[in-house]
């Protein structure tokens, strides 16, 4: 079909004129165009569920209009979140293969391999653990629990394990499932007319596996039924030395909706985090990515991008392709520092303009699963106080609002109380790794449009 990224680029140029520059930066630019199919569906992917909701709520019509202007006929815009995108890529792959039926389908994203994963200080331990379980599933580190912020390579590693086992141990049954899908599959089996059989089938599917990989477990709900079912599945597998690997954006003790018995089960294996890559690794990742995607970008520019993006690998990749794309638009074969400078110009200012105290408070609420009223209200229990102090710190640090104004946002608190909260977190950040990760994760959510 038509070149989808080329079309999208033109759509972006139109969108840029129609939406505020901040919305454009936060929500629109990060969209990935995937496909325009024969039925005129234009499939695009966002980085998260909340980004998807934002798009559906605020921008879908404008996007539709701009697409119409570019291609000259109405397209139906189909918006996916990051997990749906993976499903989509898998499915697409399946249809391609089943049409020539030579090979059995690969349920894993092909490019997410160990070979394509750049190892550095920030991820070497998790990488080694992932390789160990891929080479000898069920023998050590069971379960393996990997956590770390958005876009640091967790899903990549899960698929790498899947790809590795598929190649080296093809008789093993391996399943990758985002937790949200585990839940919805289970609930639909409960609601099925042939409930008993449907539940049996569900169990049969998961409990006969050799390797189960569960992504984004932080989305586990307090629903008793689902946790019970997951608990049983988990126990069943681990007891019979089948490998379980779990990913999350935070450690088990910070998943507030997780039942204690599951939390303690997770601790019976290995729990390890994946950190943000340091500069050397960022450079290596950019080099690898340019090779894989055939982006021609000179070394100085690679370094420039690596120095300017320290949030996540996903952002790093995003910036690299933006820079390369900008270069090709002006007819250049190799992207140079000028292209990078252009892309990064004003980025910081724009971001600052768009972030409101409200957005920061809501994001902190989302992260900790607490309510807006509680966080801005009077409650003094620990579950509320910590998020409140972090929200205060972030508002003060990012937006530089006067303390008195911040106090007003938090139920009329005195400016000394606000100052105390801010200083407490900023002291904590110097010594406490947990707080550093928390704050980083939230900042990542704020900047990657979550
Ligand atoms: P997460 O699941 O932690 O949010 P992903 O696994 O989806 O992050 O990674 C985001 C993107 O960054 C993917 O395209 C992935 O291939 C890439 N990526 C992450 N870490 C690395 C790495 N160490 N080397 C190469 N690519 C990486
Ligand atoms: Mg992921």
Walk me through the structure.
The protein is of the alpha/beta class and 450 residues long. The protein has 4 domains: 4-103, GMP Synthetase, Chain A, domain 3 (2-Layer Sandwich); 124-274, P-loop containing nucleotide triphosphate hydrolases (Rossmann fold, 3-Layer(aba) Sandwich); 295-350, no CATH class; 357-448, Chromosomal Replication Initiator Protein Dnaa, Chain: A. 61% of the residues lie in helices and 9% in strands. It has 21 helices and 8 strands. The strands form 2 sheets. A 5-stranded parallel β-sheet has the order 5-6-7-4-8, sandwiched between helices. A 3-stranded mixed β-sheet has the order 1-2-3. Helix 7 (179-191) runs antiparallel to helix 8 (195-207) and helix 20 (415-431) crosses helix 21. The mean pLDDT is 89. It binds adenosine-5'-diphosphate (ADP) and magnesium ion. Adenosine-5'-diphosphate (ADP) binds next to helix 6, helix 11 and helix 13.
